[in-house]
Specification:
The protein has 88 residues and is mainly α. It has one domain (9-81). Helix content is 83%, strand content 0%. The chain has one helix at residues 9-81. The chain starts with 8 loop residues before the first helix and ends in a 7-residue tail after the last helix.
C-alpha cells in the first residue's frame, strides 16, 4: 500500500499539494505584476528626471543671462556716475 492510498495521508497530501500550488501560483503572479508595476514606475520616474534636468538647464541659462545683464547694468551705472568699478 502506497502512502497516497492511505485514508488520511492521501487526501492530506493532495490538499497540501493543491494549497501549496495555489499559493505559489498566486505569489508568482503577484511578483510578475509587481515587477511590471516597478518597471512602469521606473520609466515614469526616468521621464520625470529628464524633464527636471531640462528645466534645471533652462533655469541655469536664465540665471547666467540675468547675471550677465546685471554686470552690464552695473558697468553702465558706474560709467554714468563716473565711478571706477574697482574702487568698491
Amino acid at each position: 500500500m502506497k502512502w497516497s492510498d492511505r485514508p488520511l495521508i492521501g487526501p492530506l497530501a493532495a490538499w497540501t499539494w493543491r494549497t501549496w500550488h495555489g499559493l505559489s501560483t498566486r505569489w508568482a503572479a503577484r511578483r510578475r505584476s509587481s515587477a511590471r508595476q516597478m518597471r512602469a514606475d521606473l520609466q515614469e520616474l526616468d521621464a520625470r528626471l529628464v524633464d527636471l534636468d531640462r528645466e534645471l538647464t533652462a533655469l541655469t541659462r536664465q540665471v547666467a543671462e540675468l547675471s550677465y545683464q546685471l554686470i552690464r547694468l552695473e558697468r553702465r551705472i558706474d560709467a554714468l556716475t563716473g565711478q571706477d568699478p574697482d574702487e568698491e
